[in-house]
Amino acid sequence: METLNQTAPTQDLFSGLQIDHENNSYLNEVARWSKFLSIVGFVFTGLGTLGLLISLFARSSYESFYTPFWQQSGAVVVMIGLLSLCFFPCLYLFKFSNKMKLALRTDDQYSMTTAFKNLKSYFKFVGIFTIVILAIYVIVIIAMVMLASRNSMF
Q1: Which Pfam families match (predicted)?
Q2: What distance in Å separates the CA atoms of residue 133 and residue 121, rounded to the nearest whole number?
């Protein structure tokens, strides 16, 4: 008896996928906006770094006697961590923009793949960061509820 679920020869689903003129213009516009947003992010990261350096030099002159060293270095480590959290998504977005513009200009498949790889890295980074922030919010809310219920008992 013949089975009904006979499969056709396997075909690559995306072998016929092409970027037409309309999609090309959309991707080009996305690349321009992502470049703009990444540059703005770089500027704010640079301003934060400049502010960190200025505060380090200003603190060293008048607070070194009043603030313990571990507090000063702890604040610097936290600021460096926050600045790198801002820098890397901007870098992924900037690389996406440059590679996408190159791919659209030269019809280079490798550049297109690299562009989308950077875009994936951007969204993965931002997504994981969002999950971490949401988890911190949940922990803080639970701690606040526990503290409020504890304080209301006395």
Answers
A1: DUF5362 (PF17319)
A2: 18
